[in-house]
């Protein structure tokens, strides 16, 4: 197999994985409008409560501007809201709206369970290989042509 075919196989796998993750999200949340990154934000806010934008960006491994765009869209749809911290009004937290939290917490738990159930079918060694392979891919994609 030449380098081009190998690269194309990797791209096809990535596309299939993305589609599978989206199908799980749509099936369990019953809401096709929620994207993977938005689902990550929802999960973080469910597990950790309101977070600063910079904390969301750090936990997701995304730039603050990307997270800000995601939060803007989610705010317009009524999923999240921004709240000023009482102790320091300069600090703005992102939180799930009460309405969204009531309506979707059970559904999001179903998504989480569906994902966890699938991943738990892999052995510990397989899960480590997956994490290692994805870490290598992430490094290659973010470093571009740079060689360490």
From TrEMBL:
PROSITE patterns from the UniProt entry: HTH_MARR_2 (PS50995)
The keyword Transcription is annotated on this UniProt entry: yes
Domain of life: Bacteria
SUPFAM superfamilies, per database record: Winged helix' DNA-binding domain
Keywords: DNA-binding, Transcription, Transcription regulation
Keyword DNA-binding among record annotations: yes
Residues of the HTH marR-type domain: 7-142
Record GO terms (molecular function): DNA binding
Family annotation (InterPro entries): ArsR-like_HTH, HTH_MarR-typ, WH-like_DNA-bd_sf, WH_DNA-bd_sf
Protein's name in the database: DNA-binding MarR family transcriptional regulator
Source organism of this protein record: Fusibacter tunisiensis
């Amino acid at each position: 197999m030449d380098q081009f075919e190998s690269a194309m196989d990797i791209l096809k796998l990535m596309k299939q994985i993305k589609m599978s993750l989206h199908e799980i999200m749509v099936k369990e949340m019953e809401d096709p409008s929620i994207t993977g990154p938005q689902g990550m934000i929802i999960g973080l806010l469910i597990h950790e409560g309101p977070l600063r934008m910079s904390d969301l960006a750090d936990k997701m491994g995304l730039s603050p501007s990307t997270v800000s765009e995601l939060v803007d869209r989610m705010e317009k749809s009524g999923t999240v809201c921004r709240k000023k911290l009482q102790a320091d009004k300069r600090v703005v937290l992102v939180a799930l709206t009460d309405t969204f939290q009531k309506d979707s917490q059970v559904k999001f738990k179903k998504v989480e369970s569906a994902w966890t159930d699938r991943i738990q079918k892999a052995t510990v060694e397989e899960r480590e290989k997956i994490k290692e392979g994805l870490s290598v891919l992430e490094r290659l994609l973010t470093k571009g042509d740079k060689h360490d």
